[in-house]
Amino acid sequence: MLTVLPLVRLRDWWDRVFWVIPVMGVVAGWLLDSVSVTVDEWLFSIELVRGFMSPSATVTLLAAIGGGMVTFTGFVFSVVLLMLQYGSSEYSPRTASYFMRTRTTQRVLAVFLATIVFSFLSILEVGSQGRADFVPTGSVVMAVFLLFLSLIGFLALLNVVGNRIRVDAVLADIGRRARDGMAARFAHTQTRSGTTLKTTPAVAKDAQIVRFSGRPGQIVAVNSRRLARIARRSGSRIILMIRTGDAVSDGSHLAMVSGGKPPTSRQLSRCLLVADERSLRLDPLYALRILTDVSLRALSPGINDPTTAVRSLDEVEGVLRATAPLTLGPVEITAGDGSLVLRSPTWTDIVDLALLEVVGEGVKQPQVTRRLTALLNDLLADLPEDRHRPLLRFKRRLVEQVDEHVGSDEYRSIYLTGDRQGIGGSR
Asked: Final residue of a domain: which of 130, 149, 165?
């Protein structure tokens, strides 16, 4: 992946972090209370407003708002977590992070916390500065406003979470992320000094293995610019043995280095961004992997939901169509007297990821075989000839497996009729 690592590190942290926006809500509640003090003093100086509420009634109202919001917040997010748990168990465990990263959840929590903090701080102003009859009228109005805002946020949260666990919405969003990610990741693999290779070049006889040094995890991004600078300064040929999405641990094979002055393990390891899980934003193959997992889970005997598998194949076809025009395969970047070879998936790798398991598991479901037939026929008709080989391989496999499973010419034609709806829209 050709990228600037510090910016990617910041973006990846922002995608994963959950607490920042809610903490901003706490700070906003405190700041709002600080500002309301001035407004309350001004309103108290107005004779008509001064007797608007009694101090005891004010304390009761603010305490009810603050205490009620504490209980309400716990209840709301217990319900949300149950809904998200249900959704992730229905699709794939890896979709849990997808559900939790919605900004609406964090923003609504921030409004709830701001209401709680503001209400409790406003209670301290009642009867302050030796004035037993002092009532923060402006704070009371603001607390009631925040309460209504919290209720609106609650309705918005239910709407967003409810939409987010719908199978069509989930698959459509993951498919969009995969398509956009493919274009963003592979559109820049061929730089001015880079050449796309058909296969990874042979390793020199004097090549040395450089091992990864650092905490274990999944590779989220690779800083190719820094790697190219290291190759230029050392005059070495660096063949990277890992790529985005791979798991690494201390001592894993990282690169094969030959010629010049070999860089150290620490130098090369610092060019990787490693996290606990892969990133949907930066790793489109991970999004494609989730689409495949959803299909396999839907086809499992315990669930037996071929319609969901068909819906997932709709998105898979879109991802393959978006990927086919891109330049794929390993990339070699010339850097002075040195060079850098980056591993990158080929078209065959991506088609295998998308179809290998689904073709094997979906043969017993006519919905799936018919949707796969339509997918393969349409891609073969639309894509250039150099993209046909893996598609033809899966088409032959699908026919062979249907022949073994059905055994009847009549039902064979039904299973292998191209149908984008699965069943109900034969072509």
From this structure: 165
Three-class SS of residue 344? Answer: coil
Among 82-86, 179-183, 242-246, the minimum mean pLDDT is found in 82-86
Q: Nearest Cα to 34, choosing from 111, 110, 125?
A: 125
What is the per-residue pLDDT across 225-261, written as a single tens digit (0 to 9) for each? Answer: 889 899 999 889 999 999 888 999 999 999 999 888 8
Choose among 265, 186, 263: nearest CA to 229: 263
| Residue 33 placed within a domain | yes
pLDDT band at 292 (very low <50, low <70, confident <90, very high): very high
251-284: pLDDT as tens digits: 999 999 988 888 889 999 999 999 888 888 888 9
Q: Contact, 218 vs 244, CB < 8 A?
A: no
User: Is residue 157 domain-shared with residue 291, that is, in the same domain?
Assistant: no
Evaluate whether residue 170 is within a structural domain.
Answer: no
Domain containing 141 equals 17-165
Give bridge partners of residue 37 from the DSSP assignment: none
Which of 288-302, 303-317, 396-410 has the weakest average pLDDT?
396-410
Question: How is residue 234 written in tokens?
Answer: 């050392």
Q: Which residues contact 401 (CB under 8 A, 6 or more apart)?
A: 359, 360, 363
What is the distance between the alpha carbons of residues 182 and 293, in angstroms, rounded to a whole number?
19
User: Do 156 and 296 reside in the same domain of the chain?
Assistant: no
Inside any domain, residue 151: yes
**Global pTM exceeds 0.85:** no
Average pLDDT, the chain: 85
Copy the structure tokens of residue 237.
């040929």
User: What whole-number distance in Å separates Cα of residue 21 and Cα of residue 28?
Assistant: 10
Does any domain span residue 179? no
Q: 291 and 156 share a domain?
A: no
Size of the chain in residues: 427
Does residue 26 sit in the same domain as residue 155? Answer: yes
Domain termination site, one of 165, 197, 221: 165
Q: Is 266 helix (H, G, I), strand (E, B) or coil?
A: helix
Query: 156 and 23, same structural domain?
Result: yes
- With the C-alpha atoms ordered 204, 208, 209, 214, is the resulting torsion angle positive or negative? negative
Phi, psi of 363 (to 5 degrees): -65, -25
Total domains in the fold of the chain: 2
